[in-house]
Automatic annotation (TrEMBL):
Coiled coil: none annotated. The keyword Disulfide bond does not apply. PROSITE patterns: EF_HAND_1, EF_HAND_2. This is EF-hand domain-containing protein. It comes from Vombatus ursinus. InterPro entries: CIBP, EF-hand-dom_pair, EF_Hand_1_Ca_BS, EF_hand_dom. It comes from the Eukaryota.
Length: 89
């Protein structure tokens, strides 16, 4: 059985699983708190300054949050990830 994140896996399945992983508080959206936690985990530290963390979060939302509600719905996340060639590999 292939991993959901293998090159052979269906892109829509990859997106669905990634969304579930990134929706840390399981509210059906990737919100600011989720994004901050993701950033800290990706950087492997909790010592990210508040200003940098807020700027990165705002940048991500600015690029992907189409309805400006300060969180990413599944469709917004799907749209953003479909434009990311590295993610889709």
């Amino acid at each position: 059985m292939a991993s959901v994140f293998s090159a052979q896996a269906c892109p829509s399945l990859k997106i669905e699983y990634a969304f579930r992983i990134y929706d840390i508080n399981e509210n059906g959206f990737i919100d600011e708190d989720d994004l901050k936690c993701i950033i800290q985990r990706l950087l492997n530290t909790t010592n990210v300054g508040d200003e940098l963390l807020n700027n990165l979060t705002k940048h991500i939302l600015g690029e992907s949050d189409m309805d400006n509600d300060r969180m990413l719905s599944f469709s917004e996340f799907e749209h953003a990830m479909s434009k990311s060639p590295d993610f889709m590999k």
